[in-house]
Amino acid sequence: MANICPEKGTVDLKLRFGFANGRHLRYLSFDANSEESATLEASTFAPTESDILQSGATEVIYTIVNGKMGASDPERQGLDSALNWGSLDVLAHFTEISAGYSPMWDVRLAVWTKDAIAKGQRTIIKDGDDLEEKSASGLLVSPAGGPVRTRRNLVNCPVVGFTNE
Question: Which residues make Cβ contacts (< 8 Å) with residue 43, sequence separation at least 6?
Fold first, then answer.
């Protein structure tokens, strides 16, 4: 939440920026089951959301840890960049809000390898399939090593819609 005006009865909400299937989209961030995610998203810490993981009623969102930085860099993406200019996460396999859609996202952290960075292969990712291919080829890994996978962190981030940027 960015601002509350009791006199007018209005609330300003901060939109988050991301990608899905190569397209720009906007979403809101309300709460998360980990303190770290809640802090990064400026949302509410809700630890009992962890129970939702058991149900399978989640979607996947990828967060790049060490993408390029710089407000004017069109390739910027990742946690380092998010702290200064906002996140550009990748919603995997999201096409539209339809039956079965869940705003609960399973956060999967992806780290560019030193080798990928040295070879100039670190680029902005706008599609879940592209990220999964890069993980399978070893360009992106989990912070603990190995393929990018769930860390059991959930965020409640309903999609507002796609934009034409």
Answer: 29, 30, 31, 32, 37, 155, 156
Q: Give me the residue label for tokens 């990220």.
A: 131
**pLDDT tens track for 79-123:** 877 777 777 899 998 888 776 778 899 999 999 999 999 999 999
Structural domain that includes position 94: 17-25+49-155
Of 48-57, 114-123, 150-159, where does mean pLDDT reach its minimum? Answer: 48-57
CA separation for the pair 92, 117 (Å, rounded)? 23
Residues 6+ apart with CB under 8 A from 151: 107, 108, 109, 142, 143
Tokens of 152: 């059991």
Q: How far apart are CA 134 and CA 148, in angstroms?
A: 10
Residues 67-85 pLDDT 10s:
998 878 888 998 877 777 7
Please tell me the total count of domains within the chain.
1
Residue 100 lies in a domain: yes
Q: What are phi and psi of 25, to 5 degrees?
A: -145, 170
Find where tokens 């769930």 sit.
150
